[in-house]
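To close the chapter, one final illustration. This time we ask the reader to focus less on the individual chains and more on the assembly as a whole: which components sit near each other, and how the overall shape emerges from the parts.
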Amino acid sequence: MKTLKIAIQKSGRLNEKSVELLKNCGLNFENYKSSLISPVSNFPLEILFLRDDDIPEYVQDGIADLGIVGENVIQETEVEVSYLQKLGFGKCSLKIAVPNNNTITVLDQLNGKAIATTYPVILGKYLKEKGISSDIRTISGSVEISPGLGLSDAICDLVSTGGTLKSNGLIPFADVMSSEAVLIGSKGSENDDLVQELIQRIQSVLRAKE
Ligand code: PRT
Ligand code: ZN
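The assembled structure is written out below.
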């Protein structure tokens, strides 16, 4: 019999909730921090623990049939996958923020300005849609300290409580996208009976939480 593979985040903000969701679906597996793959003992499924950034491509390429990852990561990697179910956790928004002592008040003022981000693809599309031409500076982390260091005029980063922006003297300026964790599948995986069975279990767990 065929065994499905689902990729979830190995450690980080989505790990715990992803594991909890699968356990609540009645799936029995060991959550070893050290292993990359964990077999499920009571369903033909293996769990792959990965960096979240790698999940969309693994699913697109069919190495994993399914994945749990933030919509932000899917949009940024521009993969072709099927969106199967929103999962209601990992909620955040991708926002442009500016220093709180600045004079930028309308989007047009971002023309010619430098914006630091780890989301150049999503930001680039957003600015293009708005007809704004900014200098997108792609950095790999600690985006919020970049204006203070004189490396950029604004940032574009994920925000949940807003605490990080505030403590770095930044104020949110524009909403680029909102995101939450979603279940994705390889194209066509939605036609698979086992995938359908899993989606139904997930939906009943989500309904029970409402
Ligand atoms: O190691 P790996 O590559 O797997 O993990 P990661 O470090 O890339 O990602 P991780 O674990 O930080 O986040 C995983 C996913 O959680 C993201 O892709 C989002 O979909 C979602 N998520 C939800 C968030 C946040 N909320 C969030 N607040 N991801 C990041 N943040 C960061 C944000 O970048 C900023 O630095 O938290 C800070 C802001 O938080 P507040 O509460 O101060 O606003
Ligand atoms: Zn990551």
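The CA atoms of residues 124 and 136 lie 7 Å apart. Residues 9, 12-14, 51-53, 70, 72-73, 90, 92, 157-164, 179 surround phosphoribosyl ATP (ligand 1) (CB under 6 Å). With these observations in hand, you are ready for the problems at the end of the chapter.
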